[in-house]
Amino acid sequence: MKKRLIVLLGAHGHLGRALVSHLIQLQEPVFGMDQQAESDNHELIGYASCDLRSQANIEKSLQKTPFSEYENITIITAVGVFSEASFSNNEFNEKDFINSLQVNLVGVSLFISKMIARGLKEGKTIRAVIVGSTAAHVGSQDIGYGVAKAGLNGLVRSISKSLSNKGVVIIGVDPGIFESPMSSRVTMERQQKAMNDTHIKRKGTVDEIVNVVSYLALSAPDYLTGSIIPLNGGQHA
Question: Does the 2-228 domain belong in CATH 3.20.20.80?
Answer without folding.
Answer: no
